[in-house]
Every structure is written in C-alpha cells, then in structure tokens.
Amino acid sequence: MTGNHKLLIICLVAFFAMSAGALLGPVLPFMVEPLNTSRAAIGLVLGMYTFSTALFMLFISAITDSVGRKKILVPCLLINGVAGVACYFAPDFETLLALRFIQGIGISGMLPIAMTMIGELYTGLERVNAMGKMSMTTGAGAISAPMIGGALAVYGWNVPFLFYGLTIPLAIIAALFLPETNPPGNRTRNRFSDILGILRESSVLYTVFLSFAISFLLYTVVIYVPFILKDNFGFSAAEAGLALGIQGFAMVSVASQAKRLAARYGKQKVIRTGFTIIGAAIGGFIFAETLVQTLAMILLFGLGFGMVLPPLNTLATQIAPQGMMGSVVSVYNIMKYVGQTAAPLILAVVLLNFGIEAVFTASCIFAFLVAVSIYMARDIYANIAEE
Known about the structure:
Elements: H1 3-22, H2 39-42, H3 44-63, H4 69-87, H5 93-107, H6 110-121, H7 124-153, H8 167-177, H9 192-198, H10 202-233, H11 237-255, H12 258-265, H13 267-287, H14 291-318, H15 325-354, H16 356-376
C-alpha cells in the first residue's frame, strides 16, 4: 500500500473522530422536544461523549507506547460504530447519554492514534504537510458532517446516529491495510507518574492548554450558532447544517496551505493569528444582524480554525520526549475533549444567567487572551518550533 493510501485511511479515522460532534450540531435544537429536555441540557449530548473520551484517554495515554497502535485503533473504531448505531434506538434522554458515554470510549483512541501514526510516518515539514492533509479531511468533515446530520434529521432526530456505523467497515480496512508504526522493538512502558512528569515541561503544558482552548472555542460555535440560525432566521436542521458547513470550506482552504504558512511565518505566528481571527469571528456573532453577516462570521471562524489546527497538531508530536509520543499526543487530545466538555457546561451557566450574547462575549474575550498569551510565551518553543 502506498503512503498516500495509508494517509487516506488515517485521515478517515480523524474524520470520524471529529464527526462525533459536528454531525449532531445542527440537530441539537430539534432534539429538545422529542427527548423532553431543555436547551441548557441538550448540550450534554455532545458533552457526555467528550467527558467519556477525555476520561478514557487517560487509560490510552498510559498504554499507547507499550502496545501496537492498531491494537488500540481497531477496537476503538468498532466500539464507536456499534455504540453510535445503538443511539438510534435510545428511548429517552438518559439512555442516549449512557450510549454516548460508551461511544466516547471508542472515540478516545481514534484521533490520538491517527496523530501519533502521522508523527511516526513523517518528519519535518512533511509532517506539517501530512497534518495539514488530516486537517483538510476534518475540514471536509466540518463541511459535510453538519450537512449529513441535518439532512438525515429530516427523517427523524435519531437517524443521524446511524452514520457512525461506517466506522465498523473502516475498522476492518485499518486492520488489513495500515502498517504497525510502533513495532515491538520501539515500545516503552510509561507509568502515569512518567506522563505527569512530562507535564512539568513548559512546552508540553502550554501546548495541551492550547488544545483545550481551540476545542472550547469550536464548541461555542457548534452548539450555539445553530440556535441563532433557528431563532433569528428560522433555519431547519438541514439548513443549519449547510450554514455550519461554510466554516469547513474556509478551514480546508487554509489547511491546504499549512506547510507553506509554517515555512514562511513559523508555527507560533500562524497559531497566534488564527486565535485572533477566531476571537473576531465569535465576537462578530454579537453584532451580526443579517444572515449574510452571520454566515460571514462562520466563514471567518473557519479561516482562523484552519490556521491553528495543523501547526498545533504538529507541535504536539514535536514536543514529545523519545518513546513518549503516543502518551503526549493522548494527553494533548484529552485536553481537546476536556475543552469540548467544558464548553457546554460553562457556557450553559452563562446562557441561563446572562443570555446568548454573553456566551459569545465570554468566548471572544477568551480567544483574544489566548492570542496574547501565545505572544508572551513565544520563547517556549525556541528549540523545537521550526525544526
């Protein structure tokens, strides 16, 4: 199998890992009534699986460097597919949350292993290029997953869950055709104390914080923009999916230039600019009065997100000490899901007490503070950022 085919399979794994949330974003407002729940609580459909994912990534981080990558990846793909399909049959909100928790177990091993395999198959700017292609795939998912979810929701609020079943055949393909990038001779047994120890490194700690931040901001848009589209412009779930897909077009266009941008400007500057653009976009939702203005902010968000993700993912593989790439990447991805879990919990409190404009105000301020912090912490990656 050629390198391109291997990368395609890895990218598909990443696509399905991210679609666990993006697929359902435009459907959330239309789940409230049939599940007999509230707007504040419905975000738990996303938050429950992200909590589970973050929790089980702790286990993944402890074993990932001591076993084969495929021994983790293939079962996780199967769990995601089976639990996702089971969500279709959930009779009530509580059962759905329980099944989403199980689905999160499967998700926990998908994106970390995909990133780690890229880190082990590529080096230097070629690694940035491969991460860029993976980000293009997830960007394509950001375009297609909301559209798919919204379109399937026309047939019922639960029909989009059947889409997750596609990871079952993907598990078979991965088992047959992906190489084992962590052969027995390279494996190391890391303890939790070893993993906690690497968090004392400022570059590792700050990178996992940035992972939390970008995911928190993403879920601000995924969860709350559909409510703007529904309330202000009367959008259906399918139409909201199409609208959210706009960010994916922007993300793909920028991610396709990841290697060139990193070579010309450096990873930190690209990441800092991306967070600044994200802050401007989220703040813009407060002042957007027309549909065109709202769609423009979605597009702007996608541009910023596409700038941040490839170089940040690359840094996560570069900062890892020898023999600990899988562990570091797992911790990095744990913080992604912690961010995705924190967003619906924290922002629901803001929504209930201050309204939806306060939700976007809080996230806007957070994005700008992150951008400033990147400038202030510019020396953290002095020895590794541009290798």
